[in-house]
Protein: Cyclase family protein
Amino acid sequence: MRPDQLDRSDPEGAIAATAARVSNWGRWGDDDVLGTMNFLTDTKRRDAAGLVRTGRSYSLSQSFDMDGPQKGWRRRTNPVHTMLDTGVDAAAGVQGFPHGIGGADDVIAMPLQCSTQWDGLGHIFDHGRAWNGRPAEQVVTSLGDRVTGIETVADLVAGRGVLLDVGRALGEDGELPDGFAITEEHLEATIAAQGPTTAVGRGDIVLVRTGQLTRARREGWGDYAGGPAPGMSFTTAEWLQATEIAAIATDTWGFEVRPNEFDHAFQPLHQIAIPHIGLFIGEMWDLDALADACAADGHYDFFLTASPLRITGAVGAPVNPVAVR
Amino acid sequence: MRPDQLDRSDPEGAIAATAARVSNWGRWGDDDVLGTMNFLTDTKRRDAAGLVRTGRSYSLSQSFDMDGPQKGWRRRTNPVHTMLDTGVDAAAGVQGFPHGIGGADDVIAMPLQCSTQWDGLGHIFDHGRAWNGRPAEQVVTSLGDRVTGIETVADLVAGRGVLLDVGRALGEDGELPDGFAITEEHLEATIAAQGPTTAVGRGDIVLVRTGQLTRARREGWGDYAGGPAPGMSFTTAEWLQATEIAAIATDTWGFEVRPNEFDHAFQPLHQIAIPHIGLFIGEMWDLDALADACAADGHYDFFLTASPLRITGAVGAPVNPVAVR
Amino acid sequence: MRPDQLDRSDPEGAIAATAARVSNWGRWGDDDVLGTMNFLTDTKRRDAAGLVRTGRSYSLSQSFDMDGPQKGWRRRTNPVHTMLDTGVDAAAGVQGFPHGIGGADDVIAMPLQCSTQWDGLGHIFDHGRAWNGRPAEQVVTSLGDRVTGIETVADLVAGRGVLLDVGRALGEDGELPDGFAITEEHLEATIAAQGPTTAVGRGDIVLVRTGQLTRARREGWGDYAGGPAPGMSFTTAEWLQATEIAAIATDTWGFEVRPNEFDHAFQPLHQIAIPHIGLFIGEMWDLDALADACAADGHYDFFLTASPLRITGAVGAPVNPVAVR
Amino acid sequence: MRPDQLDRSDPEGAIAATAARVSNWGRWGDDDVLGTMNFLTDTKRRDAAGLVRTGRSYSLSQSFDMDGPQKGWRRRTNPVHTMLDTGVDAAAGVQGFPHGIGGADDVIAMPLQCSTQWDGLGHIFDHGRAWNGRPAEQVVTSLGDRVTGIETVADLVAGRGVLLDVGRALGEDGELPDGFAITEEHLEATIAAQGPTTAVGRGDIVLVRTGQLTRARREGWGDYAGGPAPGMSFTTAEWLQATEIAAIATDTWGFEVRPNEFDHAFQPLHQIAIPHIGLFIGEMWDLDALADACAADGHYDFFLTASPLRITGAVGAPVNPVAVR
Structure:
């Protein structure tokens, strides 16, 4: 489907029709809690280790601090990091420890999706249904996600990463404009342009660089957290499912194009990808240094470890993804 | 030095003498912020990728939740995870989103050292001096660690991991008793017992399993967070420095043996290892599943990614370490 | 009803029967959000100001700090107070402010019911019904209490306070034992013993001292937060409603006697008092200094201001109640 | 001193000279922790109770929620209030409590000065000196204010409140423009205009309404938290000390006029008022409803209870001030 075939007035209809086509419900049994992470097998992970050529590593995490983009939407703030003890206290001799030892210690209060993170399978529902068709109210209560909490994949998220630098392949100066909807055609064009290391298939973790973060870094955050952005078109749902990728991440706040491709809608591709495909979505990743390295030598795949912080019952979780090339 | 050669009445003297012998100050220049992480080069990391044989991955993280061991010492609580939105709300139709989409979202408040974590180089001081000889008050203020914040190593902590399962090699039923001081002799005996895959050298990330976590899991936390524990002897300081390892982690709260090996002391080995050696110390790691796998096939080294959450200025940071064998 | 008339095996029946007798639903109209606070009129408040004789004031608040009684039940921790800036930093000159000014600033993370607090009308439900018969799911969502948030009474909670020092009147050494169920008979005996200033009536804020806090202060917290305690008998429901008091508070964690007076139950009097009577309940108040003063001069009523912190949508709120005699 | 007599280029000199004139150091002994709260005696409080005429009460607190004015300056965010349990969960039957009881519970994470609050005596230092001349580093460490924590006045802050509605007396439409420096002359003119109930003297709690909050409520927060504002002139330092008031509060973020009255300065009046005078300063109070009532009947004094939340060691604290007229 092409974006111009969408009926902009009927997101609900488009979602229902698309969900019917791409649903993975039941594919891995009624008890499944892993969704597309099932595709990332030990064999895939072993093969991915073979992609390491120089050993150079790249963190794909943005910073967690008060200089982040959050403005308070739905109580999402930037992380507040405070000290329990400091070097200044230690130097002033006010800590009361023996034999000259001094210490510093710290705490943090933050939304789990304030910076670089994974959406877990309990993050989004479609008409009250969570991943695999479960009733949302039986999955995520005030106590957290009792079924598909992010801890279910804490061991697993390491494998082959593939960068699709759509910004560099199709944008001007390496950046797609806000509102640019990345279609399957754009993805395939990027894959073709980048060459053979970019083939995308079962179990891969796909990283899509739009260049919006590059722009935000240069021009200021503006409305990075929730405003207009380049991102995946709703019409990529089939591609996301058919490729059998394990996960996908972008350098934007919300993964999909914004404004969304309907007159009145909110993140309709999430509504397909998470509850129906069982797909793990990463957001706010920093792909710039990695992208420069890939562009320099033409190798776009690498060993990627991106296991989320093991917060029991989390519906999303911060992560420091590390690519080793 | 053997533990029985320590003057139990003089920790300050022992610390000073040991610091003089093992100091790495200036080794990597005055501006260094990486300490022993300098040993973990791209080449080392590339070679480590070659250790992956089956592709099976193991998270070495304990859970982050209210069932953890913290009891409030120095305001260290267990993490408090709360929901901003839930599946119950989504199912009840009270969220106000369009086209049937519903969502769950969450926040956390936690000490950075409440569960599986790295100590950063700004965590401990010796007589007001931080790593590389810097005045502590110029390093860690109420704004955080301005020099050696954990973000400095956010890209780097991936390489060869080596498990020293001292509990299994020397303990009864795989566990060392509380108060057991692991000496260089014990480490070497474990290396010998485990065989050739266990050689420890420059750039390695060494994981020492005592079995205390296994016991806590069976018997309840008790005083896991700060009470008696097996751990590294103060006398291993030379070994820690001479081996040129990049980092070390244990399955205990505090890395070193407790009670400490002096009459009145508090974590004296930290006072050497962090500010003088520049060594990264991991605590509260869960090594049990990995240890079972290593024991089963006799391979004790693996590819380990353990990059800390990228919290700007943090003196410690939570991490989900993942070993791939 | 006397406690020995309760059928210990049937809390649900007892609750239903009692609710039918004491319900205030509809008493102040369908839109009411104030419950018994309606009884505390301006006239009552004006008259209460006349009770001030010496001008001596007493805070009835326990401390908010890590030395409190919370042990993590349902994620209720003690408050974690951390500094954003300190005097040590200011003295060390690391703050970067001009003309010699320095500052300290702080943050807190805490459950709203961790220490001295009011239960709001959205705190407890009976079979899915909140105060005035509203469906609970329409009142308190993940966004907070949208109807009866504590802000609705932020202006109002000032009036005549009356201390019923049941511990001193009926206990040994001023303390009731844990498990002691305070009945209407005990309340009336205390009123009689204390004399004419103790009359209880419409619009009053009644403070019931059991002495448990005195004991905890002497012997350590133990299970103060949720364990056995003296407190109000389930059978006082009629008294609580018939007296037309505006609010009631105790020096215990949970207001009512614990263990509760049924074989298997959890806070059954709450289930009557809050959703059916619309009564505001204060917990963890420190009544000791006030009680000493009352005992010394025989005056048991005073002007009490106890307006909760104005947290929008809170179902409970911390408060520093101040009695002026 | 008049504002036009200030040397705008020399805040440090002006501060030193003013401090020398108004210092209260030693006035109440070397151990004093109460500062000007010493003026608020029991007798003053008793007399203040006599001001109650109708019994109508007014909360002077702004809301504590995410709709507040904070933008993250020095990590000051708006309060983040989240639910531990909700009515939606209770109605869905997922809470697991017996006999039909359901509950809601909540937590908060917030800076102590995010909304209506008192500055404590440990909030501001002058050249490393805190109130009464104490070295700042001995007063406020990372553990909080060990000497003058806000708990020292938890019992005390109840007495005569006097509203000086400068906005109404001197402004247009009841509001002073941003940058308007309120001088002693303006205060006296307001007192004269308001009439005999407005006399200001020893032990009073003075509330100065500028009207900025009224404007922010109408036009949006803009830079309410730290931007230009009407407020007290630096030159009022003598008046603040000579009147022997117990405390003062305004409807603005920062009490004093902003921009400050020097070329390069930051809150110079704070540097006098808190460490030298020992004065308690309230900020972000909502005085509008009270002001309307005072204007309506010409009575500008009332009984005011404004005891801060009892957070041990806090250098500032949230409060719900309640005026009863």
About this structure: Chain D has nine helices and 17 strands. Chain D touches chain B at residues 80, 82-84, 86, 88-89, 91-92, 94, 107, 109, 142 (CB under 8 Å).
